[in-house]
Amino acid sequence: MDRTLVVVRHGQSEWNLQNRFTGWKNPDLTPAGVEEARIVGRELKKLDLCFNIAFASALRRTQHTLALIFKELGQSSVPSICDRALNERHYGDLSGLSKEEASRQWGEEQVRLWRRSYDVRPPGGESLKDTVARVLPFYCQHILPHALRGERVLVVAHGNSLRALAMVLDRLTPDAVSSLEIATGEIIIYQLNADSTVATKQVIDQQATTHR
Q1: Would you call 10 a catalytic residue per the annotation?
Q2: Of the listed 36, 43, 88, 186, which one is catalytic?
Q3: Largest Cα–Cα separation, the chain
Q4: How far is CA 136 from CA 51, 85, 120, in A?
Q5: Catalytic: 14?
Q6: pTM of the prediction?
Q7: Which residue numbers in the chain have pLDDT < 70?
Q8: C-alpha span between 40 and 35 (Å, rounded)
């Protein structure tokens, strides 16, 4: 039984580049983000990974990343499921604002609290706890069963939806997950045990490998 679960954060988006709160807004990848996605595909190809199924959020930046990965892998016929349960955390009234604009409006300390706390919501938006509450049931009901059947599963999602997954996979506390950072184009490869716990974990960070 293989039980391989690969999770990837999408490539750099146009609003990542502009340092804006993106959430459920739908900008596409930058040219740099396109290249990050292609590098993910090439890295996975080096590992000779052939996938049985893939999952992405309902947002363009994850779907574009997934398509580019599969093009590099030569696996574009793999079934893919896109669902908003895997969407980025919804930032409500912060969406579209730069970090500097938000700090001018609400104060730097308040914006920091919204960004880094586990259970404090920005106005009109979700906390990380809210994001966990929709991501984890989807993972348990739709993603995990494929992996436990011995399939190789690819998930392309966002910084916060992947942090939500990390809570269960890496057994993180709310404090630990609040400080977790996942870079654009970062690859995390899990081998799962039959009881769904993690047997092994490998992280491939493009920013780290680029500077070796």
Answers
A1: yes
A2: 88
A3: 53
A4: 22, 9, 19
A5: no
A6: 0.95
A7: 1, 208-212
A8: 9
